[in-house]
Amino acid sequence: MQSSFVWLVALMAFGACLALPAGEDAKAETLKLESENTGDKYSFAYETSNGISRSETGEVKPGAGEEDGSLSVQGSTSWSAPDGKKYEISFTADETGYHPKFRLVA
């Protein structure tokens, strides 16, 4: 049991190191940051100096009863890969699930 725990901790530490930004990405700055939340609707957007952008909007859709209802969300994320190509993921998410679309922008 203790050996499994040590491996799990080591694996988590290795994963955390991989998630750290490298090179110029570590120096990226936020160029734009917007957010709004009215309780039943929200939106946010940001852009960074290394070409990453993200936006999302969400709205609570009422259901038949007070405890019923669902959250309807749509958004997108784009970034430039190390090879210089720009990619985008756009998505919707609602009571039917998560629906992503991936595309090469340029």
Automatic annotation (TrEMBL):
Residues 1-19 form the signal peptide. Residues 49-81 are annotated as: Disordered. One of its GO terms (molecular function) is structural constituent of chitin-based larval cuticle. It comes from the Eukaryota. Transmembrane segments: none annotated. The keyword Signal applies. Keywords: Cuticle, Signal. Pfam families: Chitin_bind_4. Residues 71-80 have a biased composition (Polar residues). This is Endocuticle structural protein SgAbd-6. GO terms for cellular component: chitin-based extracellular matrix.
